[in-house]
Amino acid sequence: MKRVFYAAFVALALTGISVTSCKNASKSEAPQQDGATVQTEEQAPAAALTFADVAGMYDTEDSEMRVSLNDDGTGTWNMIGSLHWTDFTYIIRGNNIYEDVEEVTADTQPDYVYDPVKKTLKDADGTLYYLQKED
Question: Does 85 score more than 70 pLDDT?
Fold first, then answer.
């Protein structure tokens, strides 16, 4: 009798564990304003940008500065009409673009934030660079 009771108890416990783990596998808890939590469906991660997605020449509205991003992960920044420029390599994390690839950590602020809808770059100072159309 004890064995039957024990076997039934173990079977119920295992069933409860497997149902609970399957039921919660695709959901996460989100806090509400009143402190309670609600089960929400997890969303798929956003598509990652590639070098080819952001490649192009970006000029400021006054056409004084230019950022060129190449599809091989290299880029340049220069003042238009000047012989001075800066070459750099870059990486992309989400919509953030970082120069100084070796120095990027979780606390690093991005050098540019890319807007895929407007096709713009915004630098840390708030300057907007607009993608130039190819002729």
Answer: yes
